[in-house]
Specification:
alpha/beta, FAD/NAD(P)-binding domain, seven-stranded mixed β-sheet, 15 helices
Length: 546
C-alpha cells in the first residue's frame, strides 16, 4: 500500500469517527449518510448499516437502495427499518433485534441519529423484559391449553372435573367466543348473530388462568411455549387446540369484496347476517355457492347455506326466477354415501346446477364474476368464468401459521397425533384435538365434543401414572339443514362408519327429520353453553380400550 493510499485510509477512518456517535463498542449512530460515508464506515470495520429513515422524508435524501447497493460492494450488509419520528412500533423493535442479533459492528442512521438511538434503547429494554419473563416462566403450569375455542375450553373443563386442583392455563388472544354452528342459522334468518357470541372472559372455566396472548412457537424438548411478546410458558402437559385458519387471501380478490357486491360467507360472524340480507332481497338472477378442497371445518356448511336459501326462495315463490349453482372442488356431493340420496333429492327439488371438481380461485366483486379452476373434457386445466348476483363462499382452510411452522406437525402442517388416543406421536406429554389435529375425521364441533373427554381422561391417567386407555372412534356430526324445519343428521366415524346417537325409530339419520331440526335449533345451543363448555360429558363418556 502506497503512502497516499495509507493516508486516504486514515482520513476515511477519521471521517467515520467524526461522523459517528458511539453508543456501545459495536453500535454507533449518525445523521443521514452519503456514499462517501459508506466508504468511510467500511474502512472503520462496520459490517452492518441500518437506515431508520423512510425514503423521501426530505428533498435530496439519498435513497436507501443506493446505500444498500454500495454497501454490498464494500462487503457490508444493510437493513432498512424505517419509521417516522415518534412512531416507532413493537414490530420495528423486533426487526431491529433480528437484524442486529449476530452482527459484529453496526452503524445506524436517520435524519439526526435520534431515532437510531431510541430504537437501540427500546431493543435493550425489550430484551431485558423478555429475559425476566423467561426466568419467571419455569414450571408454571400443570397443563397449558393453546386455544380457547370449543375444543380447548371443554377439555380444560373436563380435566377440572377429574382433577380440580390442577393448575391450568388457557392461551388465546381473542376477546370473544363463538358458537360457530349457529352461523348457518344466522345466514338462514333463524338466529340473531349476537346470540352466538359470548365474552371470552365469561366462558373461561373457573380456577384457570387465561393469558390473552398469541403463541409464537413451541419448544417441546424444553416443555415450554414462546409467546409473541417473548414470554415463555412452561408446562408438564400440553393440549394444542388452536383451531383452523380460514385462508380468505388464497382466493384472488375475495378479501377486498367480502361483505359487499353480493359476496358473503357464513364462515364469519360479521358476514352471516349479510347472507340473510342477500337471500331476503334477491328476487331474481344467479346465486352461486362454493366449496373448496378438503379439509375444511364442517364439510356440510356450504350446502347448508344453499339449502336454507333455496327453501326461502321456494316458499316466497322466487325460485323460478333464481338460477342456483353449487361449485364443489370435490368430486361428490357428500363423503358418506348413505346420506347422498336424501341430499340429491333436495338438489333436484331446488333445481340446483351442480359442478364438481371446480375450485374457486378468483372473485371480481364489482363486475360480479367468479372464476373456477377445473379440467375440460380432454383433461386440460382451464378456468371457467361464472356470473353471479349472490356468491356464498367457503374459503380454503389450513392449520394456523404458528402451528404449521412448529415442530409438532406432520408433512401437511397439522398436529401429528395418534388417531385413537390423540396423544402426539413424538412427544408423549402433548395432546391435540379439534380442527388443528391430523386425525382423519370430519372437522366439526361435535367431533371436538367427543374428543375433549378422551384427552382429559388420558391426561388424568398419565398424571396418575396409569396406562392411556381412552380412545376416539372418529365420531363427527353434520346436521345438514336441507330446509327450515328439517335436517339430515349425518353422524359417522372413521372410514365413514355410521355412528347414530339415537335409534332409527326415533331419528333416521339418512332422512330429513323434524326431530333433528329441534335438536339443532333448540337443544344444542344451551347444551353447548351450559354443558359442553362446563365439562359435562353427556352422550360422550370416553370409551376405554380393553
Amino acid at each position: 500500500m502506497s503512502r497516499v493510499q495509507s493516508l486516504c485510509k486514515v482520513l476515511k477512518i477519521e471521517r467515520a469517527a467524526m461522523l459517528r456517535k458511539q453508543i456501545t463498542d459495536n453500535y454507533s449512530v449518525s445523521e443521514q449518510i452519503g456514499l462517501d460515508d459508506v466508504d468511510a464506515l467500511a474502512e472503520s470495520g462496520i459490517t452492518l448499516i441500518i437506515c431508520n429513515r423512510p425514503d423521501g422524508e426530505e428533498e435530496g435524501q439519498l435513497p436507501f437502495a443506493d446505500v444498500a447497493a454500495y454497501a454490498k460492494e464494500k462487503n457490508m450488509n444493510a437493513e432498512h427499518i424505517p419509521f417516522a419520528g415518534g412512531q416507532m412500533t413493537a414490530s420495528d423493535v423486533s426487526a431491529f433485534q433480528a437484524a442486529t442479533k449476530d452482527a459484529e459492528n453496526i452503524h445506524a442512521y436517520c435524519r439526526t441519529g435520534n431515532r437510531s438511538s431510541q430504537i437501540w434503547q427500546a431493543a435493550q429494554e425489550s430484551s431485558t423484559a423478555s429475559s425476566s419473563q423467561s426466568n419467571a416462566a419455569t414450571a408454571q403450569y400443570d397443563v397449558v391449553v393453546v386455544g380457547a375455542g370449543s375444543a380447548g375450553i371443554s377439555t380444560a373443563a373436563s380435566l377440572l372435573k377429574r382433577k380440580p386442583s390442577l393448575k391450568i392455563c388457557l392461551i388465546d388472544p381473542a376477546d370473544s367466543h363463538f358458537y360457530q354452528p349457529g352461523w348457518t342459522l344466522v345466514g338462514g334468518g333463524v338466529f340473531k348473530a349476537a346470540n352466538t357470541r359470548r365474552n371470552m372472559s365469561d366462558v373461561i372455566p373457573a380456577h384457570t388462568k387465561w393469558l390473552k396472548e398469541s403463541v409464537k412457537t413451541f419448544l417441546p424438548n424444553e416443555n415450554q411455549i414462546v409467546l409473541e411478546n417473548g414470554q415463555k410458558i412452561a408446562y408438564q402437559y400440553l393440549i394444542v387446540a388452536a383451531g383452523i385458519k380460514l385462508n380468505w387471501d388464497a382466493i384472488e380478490g375475495l378479501s377486498e369484496t367480502l361483505g359487499r357486491n353480493g359476496v358473503t360467507s357464513n364462515y364469519r360472524y360479521d358476514l352471516a347476517p349479510y347472507t340473510w340480507d342477500l337471500v331476503k332481497n334477491l328476487n331474481g338472477g344467479k346465486a352461486i355457492f362454493t366449496q373448496p378442497p378438503m379439509p375444511i371445518k364442517c364439510a356440510g356448511a356450504p350446502q347448508k347455506a344453499m339449502y336454507l336459501s333455496c327453501d326461502h326462495w321456494l316458499k316466497s315463490h322466487k325460485q323460478k326466477d333464481i338460477n342456483v349453482s353449487f361449485y364443489n372442488a370435490g368430486a361428490v356431493l357428500f363423503g358418506v354415501a348413505e346420506y347422498v340420496p336424501a341430499l340429491e333429492s333436495y338438489i333436484q327439488k331446488y333445481q340446483v346446477n351442480t359442478h364438481f371438481t371446480h375450485n374457486l380461485v378468483k372473485v371480481d366483486g364489482p363486475n360480479k364474476r367468479a372464476y373456477f379452476a377445473t379440467e375440460n373434457k380432454d383433461g386440460e386445466k382451464t378456468i371457467v368464468e361464472a356470473e353471479f348476483d349472490m356468491l356464498h363462499v367457503c374459503p380454503p382452510q389450513t392449520a394456523p401459521d404458528f402451528i404449521r411452522n412448529s415442530p409438532l406437525v406432520d408433512d401437511a402442517g397439522w398436529v401429528d397425533v395418534d388417531k385413537e388416543t390423540l396423544q402426539h406421536t413424538k412427544f408423549n406429554n402433548i395432546w391435540s384435538l379439534g380442527d388443528v389435529s391430523n386425525t382423519p375425521n370430519a372437522k366439526t364441533m361435535a367431533a371436538a365434543r367427543k374428543q375433549a373427554p378422551i384427552v382429559a381422561q388420558n391426561i388424568a391417567d398419565a398424571i396418575d401414572g396409569k396406562a392411556i386407555r381412552a380412545i376416539y372412534d372418529g365420531y363427527g356430526s353434520c346436521p345438514l339443514t336441507v330446509e327450515r324445519g328439517k335436517i339430515v343428521l349425518a353422524e359417522f366415524g372413521y372410514g365413514g362408519k355410521l355412528l347414530p346417537t339415537f335409534p332409527k325409530w326415533l331419528n333416521d339419520g339418512a332422512k330429513p327429520t323434524y326431530l333433528a331440526w329441534i335438536l339443532k335449533e333448540d337443544l344444542l345451543p344451551p347444551f353447548y353453553w351450559h354443558g359442553m363448555l362446563k365439562g359435562y360429558e353427556w352422550f360422550v363418556k370416553p370409551t376405554m380400550r380393553k
